[in-house]
Amino acid sequence: MLANDRGSVDGMIYKGRALLAKAGADKKVDPKLIATAREWFLQASSADPQDPEPLFEYFRTYAVAEEARARGRSKLSTEHPFSCRKTRACA
């Protein structure tokens, strides 16, 4: 898509999604891929400011990065602000 039309919003979104999937596939997150995916989503958003999808995908990069980081940890630390000991949510 991007090869035929450099201004294709859908093409930019697909490129960003592919980079995001690659970045979040391993336990260790590649911050360069996440940053590049964000750039593609921001380019798509500026190409069509009325389309909400690029911004949705942009903000989704933060969730994907955090999920990949969480997979890398075996369990929550007791120092984490949302751990069971801090919130007393675990019984």
Provide key terms for this protein.
0% strand, elongated, mainly alpha, 62% helix, 91 residues
Task: Give structural notes.
The N and C termini lie far apart (52 Å). The radius of gyration is 17 Å and the shape is elongated. It has one domain (9-87). It is built from four helices and no strands. The chain is mostly helical. 62% of the residues lie in helices and 0% in strands. 21% of the residues are buried.
* Overall pLDDT: 78
Provide the structure class.
mainly alpha
Order of helices and strands: HHHH
Instruction: Please report the distance between the alpha carbons of the first and last residues.
Output: 52 Å
Brief digest:
The protein is mostly helical and 91 residues long.
Q: Could you outline the blueprint of secondary structure elements for this entry?
A:
Layout: H1 9-23, H2 31-47, H3 53-72, H4 84-87
Helix pairs in contact: 1-2, 1-3, 2-3
